[in-house]
C-alpha cells in the first residue's frame, strides 16, 4: 500500500491542475521574455504585424470624436433628406446638378435588398456620411464608410426594439444577414 502512495506522489507533479497553468510562466525566470521572443519569431515567419499599439478604448474615442465633428452637418443633411424623401432613397430629379464628385462603391443595405452604388455629392457636402444621409443611408464608419444601412431599416429596428426591448441590434444584424444570404 505504501508503494502505491509513493508512485502516485512521483506522478502527481507531472500534471498541472486546471487553475495552476498561470504559475508555469513567470517573469522571474525569464520565461516571459522567451515567450515574447518566440511570439515575435512566429509573427515574422507568418507575416503578422500588430500595427496599432493603442487600446480599443482609444479607437472608440477617436471614432466618437470623428462623429462629433460632423454631427451638425449630418443633422442638416437629414433635414434635407426628410424634406424630399419619396420613400425610395433617391433624391428628387433635378436637385443634383452636374457634379464630378461622387461616393463610389458603397454597399447599401436595406431591409430587403443590398447593392453597390455610386452616390452623387451636392456642392456643400463635406463628409461621406452627409452624402449617404442625403440619399437615406448612414455609414458604418465616420470617415471612410464602405457599408451603409438605410434609415428606414434603422427606423424598423427602433420600432421592433420599442415593442420588444429584448430584441437587440445583434439580432437585427443577424436578421439582415439571413435575409441577404450573408454568413454572419
Automatic annotation (TrEMBL):
Recorded protein name is Uncharacterized protein
